[in-house]
């Protein structure tokens, strides 16, 4: 039997593994400053030289950024896969809104399903806080700006992704957060303008989704998340068709005016 040499990992490599796990699971987020070197060494139970070596390895990997005299930060580039120019481009094209909703349909249904199955007590606390913030926006009955309401809506869906304990789903939602927030703001404006009941429908849907996740009803949570996106798609399609009808009518009017 061939036996390979058992190589013991360097202490710095073990530190790297732990920090990488924290980044993957969302405990450490893009742009977040790491605790001071002394504090981290105490938390990990290692020497400061070992910690410095681990930090250098993660900087080389592009996971951390060291700022002279300013500490160590999780790389900002881990937080978004969409540049600002691309966000603007997507926002300016209506067809991309449809595409994003189609993408959200699958993504958020799965997030809701796994969140209902896996949410821990701290996850539920975070979800409760995000839900309360969204409800506080709704309670202002139109006095909160669309941007505030859209941000609260997006944070609620992000909290669900965090509770799913699926790192791929979580980081996909995080990378799309700015795009998601802008999309929600645009959707809210269009929906409220078209249907008076849209606001109440969104309130009811978010409440039902929240309760299903908190009660661990995975299949129900997945169904409600799908129905929520379906409703948004339906209303926005209706708005698009109405806009197209008005444009046709305006073209006829102009044609008749010019004989």
Automatic annotation (TrEMBL):
Signal peptide (from-to): none
Stored InterPro entries: GntR_C, TF_FadR/GntR_C, Tscrpt_reg_HTH_GntR, WH-like_DNA-bd_sf, WH_DNA-bd_sf
SUPFAM superfamilies given in the database record: GntR ligand-binding domain-like, Winged helix' DNA-binding domain
GO molecular function, one term: DNA binding
Keywords: DNA-binding, Repressor, Transcription, Transcription regulation
Record-annotated HTH gntR-type domain positions: 9-77
Pfam hit, one: FCD
Protein purpose: Transcriptional repressor for the pyruvate dehydrogenase complex genes aceEF and lpd.
The protein, known as: Pyruvate dehydrogenase complex repressor
